[in-house]
Amino acid sequence: MSSSASVISSRELRGREMTLVEALREALREEMRRDDRVILLGEDIGVEGGFGGAFTVTLGLSEEFGHHRVIDTPISEAAIAGVAAGAAMAGLRPVADVQYGDFLFLAMDQLANNAAKLRYMSGGKLAVPMVLRAPVGATTRGSQHGQSLEAFFMHVPGLKVACPSNPYDGKGLLKSAIRDDNPVIFFEHKLLYGSKGARKEKAGLQVAGIVPEEEYLIPFGEAKIVRPGRNVTIVANLLMVHRSMQAAEILASQSIDAEVIDVRTLVPFDWPAVFDSVKKTGRLIIVEEDNLTGGWGAEVAARVADDCIGYLDAPIRRVAAPDTPPPFAPIMEQFYVPSVERIVSTAKQVVVV
Amino acid sequence: MSEPLPDSEAKLTTQQRVVMYRRMLLCRMFEERVYYLFLEGRLPGTIHQSQGQEASAVGVCSVLRSGDMITSTHRPHSHAIARGVPVTSLMAELFAKDTGCCRGKGGSMHVGDRDAGMLPAIAIVGGGIPLASGYALAFKYLKQPNIVACFFGEGATNIGAFHEAVNMAAIWDLPVVFVCENNKYAASTAVEKVMKVKHVSERAQAYGIPGETVDGNDVEITYYAMQRAAERARAGKGPTLLEIETYRFAGHSRSDPGHYRAAEEVASWKERDPIARYEKQLSTEALITPEDMAGFKAAIDRELEEAIHLAERDPSPKPEDCLSDVFVS
Q1: Is the pLDDT of residue A66 over 60?
Q2: Contact A5, A259 (CB under 8 A)
Q3: A213 and A16 in contact (C-beta within 8 Å)?
Q4: Residue B120: closest C-alpha in chain A
Q5: Residue from the list B100, B135, B141 with its beta carbon closest to the beta carbon of A89
Q6: How far is CA A209 from the centre of its chain?
Q7: Residue A71: its chain B contacts at CB < 8 A?
Q8: CA atoms within 13 A on the CB side of A262
Q9: What local confidence, expressed as pLDDT, does residue A353 receive?
Q10: How far is CA A135 from the centre of its chain?
């Protein structure tokens, strides 16, 4: 295989079964033990008797590392992002978070105008090694707590963007993000967390995965072929990887062999992995929870058209949320978020059996 | 609000006073040369000039030490000069040269040089204030004996980032001094139209930190006020909101003739020109002679002439250099 993408199945891994929340927490703990410069900033992340951030990722970390490293902030997203950027330039490695990705709009100036541009504007003198973690995805919380925002940040030069779909990738990518000298926006899907107790998501997936005992890092810019196939390439991220895998199983029963690629990071993007796959299958579907227009899938479609047009046997299709805000009513939300059925029917449209 | 001055460092020495005078003169003469360079069409872009505000830049920055950091605004030239960013690299940046302090990627609104103690200026009003608090957080966390001086205008105190970042610095006792240069106008909008309180410094009460308003056209008053705030910050007692009342003689930007300001108002502030005032004060005290002043001006003229000469001859960046420095590779 000429692709730079790695093919890893959980069978090959030895380790413990962990949820994404546990894996992310372990990544933070390991990096904080390894490097004193790593600090956490966010709302409700270290309060005794609290809940370890909105989704329990930081639970227990203030007890181990103290409140000078697990810093509870006021409700001030612009300052959370800007303070993280300032501290990063001064030599720390802040990992900030917002409780819901939707709140990143409050921090947009600090992220897009400062964190992303200070290296550039300084003529290469400064670095801004910060991470901003943000939960995304529609989870019956309505329009302001359910958006998927990857495309906004993919569009800003100077920001890296990660979007892991499982505990193994979550841990390895978060550790890489913390060690990266660039600002990283790190998206986590609320239905993939596997949070327990009061923070458990009703519709959450059971996506506990094997996480090795030994340390590992996952480099940015390496997609993962989670299911090899011959007839159609399905490119997805976050929750949509899981829906695409379910769709692929259904398609397999109907003699359509889908290759599913988990992009893992959007910036940098593993273009060779997608190009190689499309050259093999001749068909491409992009599945994203983001709104259709101007989503990251549009960029993938354009690049594939540029590089692989001669290999395509069918139009490139996108399965995305419609151009509406996320609705509240579960029945509408289920319509809004790309479903397994939509992926299956789209695949059947492009693959002539 | 001000605490009594400690005995050490209480008084400026004669040499320091003369240095401050000369530094203000450099700021003024730099801006005047730049103004004409723009009129002559020799510089690209836009400029926001700071003639009249030199006592603020120099008074504040003269208190700072090596390792301290400043953040600045879209009006950064005097801050950069006062902090010690080399005039040659400043001028080269305005000429969009590869030798500029931002290698031609910043321009007038983003001049700065971390090694000289100045972050690239942030040209979104108020946008640099969270960065200042963050930098100060790192100083405190790393137990470095340094402080941040965060410059912004009175207009910035109406933006959310100011509230969020000053509050954070206050609750965590961060070593930062918030230096508000109240030059009375946010672009063309008079401060009275957009602020209910009389003084920006009153806003400090909302954060539980000291606030002080000083005559920012008196460089020594500004220096001593900054010294008190800086000592407080270095002692771990947290931030101060220092309001420096001043006035810009120029328009908001290169295209602004300033018709929204009464001629009498401009004239009255020009009577309080910080450089002329200090010149008079130092002359009265017989610390400088007319010959000294003429000598300074001649030397600065030569320095600026040389900087312009170098900048014009310096290489431009290559067009494709625009592609680098987006990421640390």
Answers
A1: yes
A2: no
A3: yes
A4: A122
A5: B135
A6: 16
A7: 172
A8: 25
A9: 55
A10: 9
Distance of CA A160 to the CA centre of its chain: 11
- Tell me the domains of chain A and their CATH numbers: 14-212 (3.40.50.970), 224-350 (3.40.50.920)
Our CA-based measurement puts residue B267 at a distance from the nearest CA of chain A, in whole angstroms, of 37
Residue B59 lies in a domain: yes
Question: Which of A68, A74, A125 faces B168 most closely, judged by CB atoms?
Answer: A74
Q: What are the strands, taking DSSP E only, across chain A?
A: 16-18, 38-42, 70-72, 93-97, 131-136, 160-162, 184-189, 209-211, 224-227, 232-236, 258-262, 265-267, 284-291, 317-321
Q: Which residue has the higher pLDDT, B295 or A2?
A: B295
Alpha helices by DSSP H, chain B: 14-39, 54-61, 77-83, 87-94, 128-141, 160-171, 191-194, 219-234, 263-270, 274-284, 290-313
Residue B182 lies in a domain: yes
- pLDDT, tens only, B251-288: 888 788 888 999 999 999 999 999 999 999 999 999 99
For B312-324, what is each residue's pLDDT tens digit? Answer: 999 999 999 999 9
- CB interface of A with B, residues 267-286, below 8 Å: none
Least confident of A1-15, A209-223, A251-265, B5-19: A1-15
> Whole-prediction pTM value?
0.95
Q: Which helix (H) or strand (E) holds B179?
A: strand B176-182
If one counts the domains in chain B, the total is 1
Question: Which of A145, A330, A151, A313 has the alpha carbon at shortest distance from A238?
Answer: A151
B323 is a domain residue: no
Domain range for residue B32?
Answer: 14-314
Asked if A81 and A149 touch (Cβ cutoff 8 Å), the reply is: no
Counting Cα atoms < 13 Å in the Cβ hemisphere of B285 gives 10
